């Protein structure tokens, strides 16, 4: 299979798009060689009635239904999820402290239905946290298998 050098954005999955439409888009992308999915632990919190779980949950349902986790590269982000329920602004964003990153990753894993995150992004800048703390927290989330894969491409 040839992989497309693109990431499929997934903001509307699980809200604006139901599972039938979401699965159709994901299937078509995968069939065309798409492997990387771009989501976040807050997509799309700004929609009325949404929590931010929806996109990751929809992707997790699709991965489970298709059994193709070994061919897909889910990437997700942390740092921008509101900490105040119902807040539709970035004013209460979780930030990039070690505790926030750990909590965000532990929430994303079951929503995505996986035991590891292939690509983990900081969704926002957080100058209130020392960069060493943020990088240290992300480093702790790297498992040995992922470290080996990263080392093999360096």
Question: Could you describe the 3D structure shown?
Answer:
The chain is α/β, with parallel strands linked by helices and 154 residues long. The chain has five helices and four strands. The chain has helices at residues 19-31, 54-66, 98-112, 131-141, 144-153, and strands at residues 7-9, 36-38, 73-78, 119-122. A four-stranded parallel sheet has the order 1-2-3-4, covered by helices on one side. Helix 1 packs across helix 2 (54-66), helix 2 packs across helix 3 and helix 3 (98-112) packs parallel to helix 4 (131-141). The mean pLDDT is 89.
Number of strands: 4
- Biggest sheet details: 4 strands, parallel
The helix count comes to: 5
Radius of gyration: 16 Å
Order of helices and strands: EHEHEHEHH
The largest beta-sheet arranges its strands as: 1-2-3-4
Global morphology: globular
Q: Structural class of the helix and strand makeup?
A: alpha/beta
Helix content: 40-55%
pLDDT < 50 runs, ≥5 residues: none
Strand content: 5-15%
Amino- and carboxy-terminal Cα gap? 23 Å
Q: What is the averaged pLDDT score?
A: 89
């Amino acid at each position: 299979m040839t992989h497309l050098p693109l990431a499929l954005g997934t903001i509307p999955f699980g809200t604006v798009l139901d599972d039938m439409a979401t699965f159709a888009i994901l299937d078509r992308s995968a069939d065309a060689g798409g492997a990387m999915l771009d989501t976040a632990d807050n997509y799309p919190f700004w929609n009325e009635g949404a929590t931010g779980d929806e996109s990751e949950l929809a992707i997790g349902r699709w991965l489970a239904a298709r059994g193709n986790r070994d061919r897909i590269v889910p990437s997700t982000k942390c740092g921008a999820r509101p900490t105040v329920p119902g807040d539709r602004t970035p004013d209460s964003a979780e930030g990039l402290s070690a505790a926030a990153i750990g909590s965000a990753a532990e929430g994303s894993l079951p929503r995505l239905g996986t035991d590891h995150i292939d690509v983990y992004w900081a969704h926002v800048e957080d100058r209130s946290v020392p960069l060493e703390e943020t990088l240290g927290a992300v480093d702790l989330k790297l498992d040995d298998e992922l470290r080996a894969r990263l080392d093999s491409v360096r």
